[in-house]
């Protein structure tokens, strides 16, 4: 009997040691939790890039637990708390509310963000220096906003007033809007801000913006992206062109944008996750990553319908 008890105790100690080791999950896999704010093409591409980067490096040794919050920030909180309870090795938050939820859910599990416009704004870090100083790092989807603003007089030299349209509930949209307003002001172009609280008032606010503006600027904004058809159904008949914050939204309602690849920033985020999981990199000390390239692109269909002449250095969206 004593011998049997001894064997049982030894087996329990071995299992306990295996469970506490830092080499991924008990199945020999790294368990990665993904919280994506909403389904649309840009965020989908970022998630795909993230997963493919880790799969390329880890093969079968990575397991993804993937959730979509259907555009609801409160659901992001529920998802991230659930992922912590499931004992994931790392969490990825795709879009600002998802990152914020992951940051609130844990101060210990590494968190990777992607499709984040400005980490200082998202995490309320006043002395932003490019690193979070905590268990969080990731990639940004910010294109040079002054260059986006410069596209407006380049394409529409006679425009006198630009309507800045975005969702007031998205802090990163506010951040982008303020920079673009400052840039346009420096060019002598008047601006007026129009905000919608959620998808319910997108059509009415877009209509008011079109009535008061020669051109609209819509930053990288998740609510606007998911309501692209609604915005286009108002702006196109009104004959008001839109400069968009990112390419996938531009496909839905924009004339042009300075574009990044969301797949690329997702892939870079996946490589950063690998460095944390396998090589012990400290997310607190990792610089936020950015897209490697920017391209001026245009929506050929909308530009044709609005009679917009596009410079030769612009590329048609495929």
CATH-derived topology of the largest domain: Rossmann fold
The CATH homologous superfamily of the largest domain is termed Response regulator
Biggest pleated sheet:
5 strands, parallel
CATH architecture of the largest domain: 3-Layer(aba) Sandwich
How many H/I helices?
Answer: 13
Provide the gyration radius in Å.
Answer: 23 Å
How many domain modules? 2
H and E string: HEHEHEHEHEHEHEHEHHEHEHEHE
Highest-level CATH class of the largest domain: Alpha Beta
Q: What percent of residues adopt helix (DSSP H or I)? A: 40-55%
Please give a structural write-up:
This protein has 318 residues and is α/β, with parallel strands linked by helices. The protein has two domains: 27-141 and 262-285, Response regulator (Rossmann fold), CATH 3.40.50.2300; 145-259 and 295-316, Rossmann fold (3-Layer(aba) Sandwich). Helix content is 47%, strand content 19%. The protein has 13 helices and twelve strands. It has helices at 2-20, 41-58, 73-85, 96-105, 119-122, 145-155, 171-186, 202-212, 222-226, 228-238, 247-253, 262-279, 300-306; strands at residues 30-36, 62-68, 90-94, 111-116, 136-140, 161-167, 190-196, 215-218, 242-244, 256-259, 295-298, 315-316. A five-stranded parallel β-sheet has the order 2-1-3-4-5, sandwiched between helices. α2 runs parallel beside α12 (262-279), α6 (145-155) crosses α7 (171-186) and α8 packs parallel to α10. The radius of gyration is 23 Å and the shape is elongated. 45% of the residues are buried. The model is unreliable at 1-26 (pLDDT under 50).
The gist of it:
With 318 residues, the chain is of the alpha/beta class.
């Amino acid at each position: 009997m004593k011998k049997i008890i001894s064997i049982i105790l030894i087996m329990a100690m071995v299992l306990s040691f295996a469970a506490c080791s830092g080499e991924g999950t008990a199945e020999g896999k790294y368990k990665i939790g993904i919280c994506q704010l909403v389904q649309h093409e840009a965020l989908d591409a970022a998630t795909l890039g993230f997963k493919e980067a880790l799969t390329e490096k880890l093969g079968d040794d990575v397991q993804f637990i993937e959730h979509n919050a259907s555009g609801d920030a409160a659901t992001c909180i529920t998802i991230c708390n659930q992922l912590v309870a499931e004992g994931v090795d790392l969490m990825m938050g795709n879009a600002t509310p998802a990152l914020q939820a992951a940051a609130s859910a844990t101060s210990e599990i590494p968190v990777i963000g992607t499709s984040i416009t400005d980490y200082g704004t998202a995490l309320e870090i006043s002395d932003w220096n490019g690193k979070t100083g905590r268990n969080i790092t990731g990639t940004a989807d910010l294109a040079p906003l002054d260059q986006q603003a410069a596209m407006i007089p380049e394409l529409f030299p006679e425009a006198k007033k630009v309507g800045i349209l975005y969702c007031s509930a998205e802090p990163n949209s506010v951040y982008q809007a303020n920079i673009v307003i400052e840039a346009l002001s420096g060019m002598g172009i008047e601006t007026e801000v129009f905000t919608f609280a959620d998808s319910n008032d997108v059509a009415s606010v877009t209509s008011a913006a079109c009535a008061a503006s020669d051109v609209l600027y819509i930053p990288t904004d998740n609510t606007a992206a998911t309501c692209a058809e609604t915005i286009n159904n108002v702006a196109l008949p009104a004959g008001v062109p839109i400069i968009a914050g990112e390419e996938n939204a531009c496909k839905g309602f924009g004339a042009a944008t300075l574009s990044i690849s969301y797949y690329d920033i997702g892939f870079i985020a996946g490589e950063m996750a690998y460095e944390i999981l396998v090589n012990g990199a400290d997310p607190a000390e990792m610089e936020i990553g950015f897209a490697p390239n920017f391209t001026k692109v245009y929506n050929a269909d909308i530009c044709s319908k609005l009679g917009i002449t596009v410079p030769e250095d612009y590329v048609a969206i495929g």
